[in-house]
Amino acid sequence: MRKKWLTIVLCTLLQATFSFSLYHDSEDRKSLMERPKSHCFSCASFVYLPLWSQLMHHYYPPKNFTDRCWQPDSGIGLVPCSSACFTLVERIDGEEYVSEQHGVIRGCMDRLLLFGLDDDVRNILSAYENQRVCRHTDRKLLRLFPLSGQTDVVTFCSCNGDFCNEHDMLRELSSSNSFQIHSVLLLVATWILILF
């Protein structure tokens, strides 16, 4: 009698647990389905193409490789996205490049790294609604493949909404470079004044 009663209790608990699990799985799926999808530009500047045999083991492929990726237009590929859009600008060193090279990649945050970003990093990068936020950050934090021995700093912009990663990154890069040049000139002028 006691075994029969114990079996009934265990079966009831298992059935309740199973029903609870199914309910929450369907709710999670429903919330994912209801999440609005936006579209992000997806491309990489041409400088990445010779490196793609190394990068393909780490990154999702962009829709196309083109230098129009710096200033995207309607001919650039698009991807549907349920998370934030991103734009990545980084320095690229290599034997075939005589001068300093920079590359840009655009896409959907969930389709950047094959093995995904850490949840806390992705949440921080996706936290801003209806605005584009750019940060200079360490590539190791984002688990990006190292393409420069000179610096680990990359510019990473994220935004939410249709085609929000369309910002002209050539202008951003030149203003960043001019800011660095002005900073160096100011530092040199300060040293000259101190010495004399």
From TrEMBL:
Residues 1-21 form the signal peptide. This is Homolog of Odr-2 (Two). One of its GO terms (biological process) is olfactory behavior. Pfam families: Ly-6_related. One of its GO terms (cellular component) is neuronal cell body. InterPro entries: Ly-6-related. Keywords: Signal. PANTHER family: HOMOLOG OF ODR-2 (TWO), HOMOLOG OF ODR-2 (TWO)-RELATED. The keyword Signal applies.
